[in-house]
Amino acid sequence: MLVEELMKEEYNAGKAEGIEALVSAIVDFLSDLAPVSDDLESRIASINDLEVLKDLTKKAARATSIEEFEQYLTAQNY
What we know:
The protein is mainly alpha-helical. The chain contains 4 helices and no strands.
């Protein structure tokens, strides 16, 4: 049982680091377009699904404006 708990802790730590890195990447991409509001950064940081964050990273990299990205977030209910 101890090994399973340790593995779960390691997995969760890795997942948290991955989430943090993706949120940072999204904010960095958007910052190239315009300043990112605290509200938008909080919305992004509240997402803890790695697959969703991967998708949002691609959207942020391809966005032509922060407004376009925010509209996508709203349309996807994030």
